[in-house]
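queue> pop job 88
queue> type: inverse folding (structure -> sequence)
queue> payload:
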């Protein structure tokens, strides 16, 4: 990767392209014990009981953001000062679903009997700690996490949002957070499982080879035909339910893709469901990138669609992993 120059355009032409079936197999490199070890270390890191519930831009207006985290109903809205507040989504009076209630002048007003909540303790309703990092909103649920609480979540290093193009994708699948994290800690599947997006993938460093706790990957993002954007990406897991990809070389140095896994609770059949909330925070020092930021409202749906296409595959991976684990058939370590 070090020998790849940065030209006037971010594109490169693949000169020695090989067919999908003739690329080098990666199954020997993708050692189950290596992936399992990285997952185990991620699960041992503190989260402080913080859970991502959605995008910052989705919290506001005249309706709260309603989510379920590990079976607990949660509502999030903004007070008159724009501060994010959160709490139980069940009205303490007669159990109305507060996610369906309106927000008026920073106060959530229950639509059943008019009980008004301004974000402070009232009538048996107790708020949850909430945190807005400028891209994502987090809620701290100490009764769910059971860890030593932290004052703030473990937010990955990222470009300044005001100077970046941000987009947030959300999806859900039948699996547990560890299955989503394990998917992201297996970089070897990229060019095989997602050939429409990734080619020429090589895992340059692993925790086993480099002595650290990250995966460094040289990969090219497909644009059209043989046109690609080559980069080096480094994957780390700063907390149990988050995996971050940092672009460290090539186009968009400093850009990040954050994958957050939030448990939702069981479905009607008792199977666990997990939300995938993925934030793309893209940055570039090219002069034309200012135009991309200006066109963010048009570009965000395209970025979300690209993330969604990848996660249709990756959620199938995570769901399959959970299915095998839950029936004692998973061959991984």
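queue> result:
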């Amino acid at each position: 990767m070090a020998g790849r120059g940065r030209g006037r355009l971010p594109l490169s032409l693949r000169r020695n392209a090989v067919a999908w079936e003739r690329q080098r197999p990666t199954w020997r490199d993708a050692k189950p014990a290596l992936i399992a070890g990285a997952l185990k270390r991620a699960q041992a890191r503190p989260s402080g009981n913080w859970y991502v519930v959605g995008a910052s831009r989705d919290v506001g207006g005249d309706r709260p953001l309603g989510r379920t985290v590990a079976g607990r109903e949660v509502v999030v809205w903004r007070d008159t000062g724009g501060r994010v507040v959160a709490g139980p989504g069940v009205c303490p009076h007669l159990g109305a679903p507060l996610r369906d209630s309106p927000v008026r002048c920073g106060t959530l007003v229950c639509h059943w009997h008019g009980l008004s909540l301004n974000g402070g303790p009232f009538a048996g309703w107790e708020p949850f700690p909430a945190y807005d990092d400028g891209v994502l909103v987090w809620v701290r649920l100490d009764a769910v996490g059971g860890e030593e609480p932290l004052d703030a979540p473990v937010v990955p290093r990222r470009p300044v949002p005001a100077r970046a193009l941000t987009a947030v994708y959300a999806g859900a699948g039948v699996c547990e957070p560890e299955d989503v994290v394990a998917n992201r800690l297996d970089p070897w599947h990229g060019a095989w499982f997602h050939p429409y997006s990734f080619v020429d993938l090589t895992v340059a460093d692993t925790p086993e080879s480099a002595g650290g706790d990250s995966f460094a990957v040289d990969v090219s993002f497909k644009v059209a035909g043989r046109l690609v954007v080559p980069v080096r990406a480094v994957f780390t897991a700063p907390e149990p339910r988050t995996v971050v990809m940092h672009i460290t070389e090539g186009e968009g140095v400093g850009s990040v893709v954050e994958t957050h896994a939030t448990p939702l609770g069981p479905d009607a059949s008792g199977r666990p469901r997990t939300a995938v909330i993925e934030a793309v925070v893209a940055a570039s020092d090219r002069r034309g990138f200012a135009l991309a930021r200006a066109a963010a409202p048009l570009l965000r749906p395209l970025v979300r669609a690209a993330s969604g296409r990848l996660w249709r595959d990756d959620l199938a991976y995570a769901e399959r992993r959970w299915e095998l684990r839950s029936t004692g058939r998973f061959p991984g370590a």
